[in-house]
Amino acid sequence: MYRRLRMPETIEDPLSFLLNQLPTNKPVSSHSRIRWSSICLILHELAQLQHNKLILPTPPNPGQRLLDWLLPS
Question: DSSP assignment, residue 20?
């Protein structure tokens, strides 16, 4: 998880750390875009593990709706 989130292993709970830093206003840096996509994929995988079944196929662009809202074209 640390590698996927590009976080140092010194952070005890990187997923919670990043979720607590979710954007509340515009704009979002490109670095945040990469992390948000990774967070969405990890949460999707955790949901499947929790329910012990395949819930839905992995979305092709995880988190894109939030990014579209933050950075409208």
Answer: T
